[in-house]
């Protein structure tokens, strides 16, 4: 029985540093489908000098402004229509709002949504333990500690905590994340599309569970058990 639909229209949701970008990339590589992220779409458009949208996108990004949601929607809609998406795609960074999730379901059929679930406490711990040096070498006081908490083992420069990694900043980012993400999660949950994955396991374990679910989905799509 041939597949009449793109079987792999996959969305990855999760808080910052949940590892969703890594998981999206691994799934994209495994199933040979493109990894789509809005960040990359915007960077690519910006670089296309003969694209009339390039200047518009650049005018927002270069001034540190958010690209308007209607424009992002249009760019995503164009991207998922490209030839390399004939089997589907693995997407992260979109949808960011409930409206975008509703928009996406108007223009295509999402097959599966993975929520890489990491508790707020664990996110705060992951981020607030980070230390960097001025050369961009990154350490973590718990997970990859430098010999001396104040000095980079790689280059000998002093280590500091980025403002973005400070507990208060992380907590307010999480608040922003939950404000939109919880509604998106509910939206997909009600449609039976959501799979919650415990993101506090190893990268390999998380990946195994995702692949297993995808293979189960695929088996049911091709009527595997039918004689
Ligand atoms: Zn360094």
Could you characterize what this model shows?
This protein is α/β, with parallel strands linked by helices. The protein has helices at 20-31, 38-47, 52-61, 69-79, 98-107, 120-128, 167-190, 203-221, and strands at 8-13, 35-37, 88-92, 112-117, 130-132, 138-140, 194-198. It has a single domain, classed as Rossmann fold, CATH 3.40.50.300. The chain has eight helices and seven strands, in the order βαβαααβαβαββαβα. A five-stranded parallel sheet has the order 2-3-1-4-7, with helices on both faces. Strands 5-6 form a two-stranded antiparallel ribbon. α1 crosses α8 (203-221). Zinc ion binds at residues 133, 135, 137, 152, 154-155, 157.
Task: For the structure shown, list the relevant keywords.
227 residues, alpha/beta, Rossmann fold, five-stranded parallel beta sheet, two-stranded antiparallel ribbon, 46% helix, globular, binds zinc ion
